[in-house]
Amino acid sequence: MRLYMKQKMISITQGFNIMDENGTPVFKVKGELLTIGRKLHLLDLEGNELAFIRQKLLTILPKMYIYQNGQEIAIVKREFTLLRPRFVIEGLNWVIQGDYLAHDYSILVGNHPICRIHKVWLALGDCFEIDVDESVDLIPVIAVILAIDYCTDSQGG
What we know:
mainly beta
């Protein structure tokens, strides 16, 4: 399945849609105003929460917690390295490989890629093309991508 995540260049609530290949919205992403630490909600088109992502405060490097149905399912942590950022995904047995800064990376289970993320450079604002294996639960994949995007964002560290 191919999805597109295009963030608005200026958005007070950090809200945007995730669309399919035809440009039809599939999910909504909404941020919270006036909160300490970033909080994002992945919603279906009716506004029901599918996942919640929150920033852990008072850490040297960004750390994001991912919840689904009120249960913590993963922690995305950026680790210190000298040359490139490195991410650890605790709780899902996933590995991230590729160039995060260029937004060109893959999510793997063992040696099997389950998702590939590629930044579309000619778009106004950030636009990411996401290819997800049909056999994978889409919600945790999108939540991890949102967490990694936050951690690589200049505002997120």
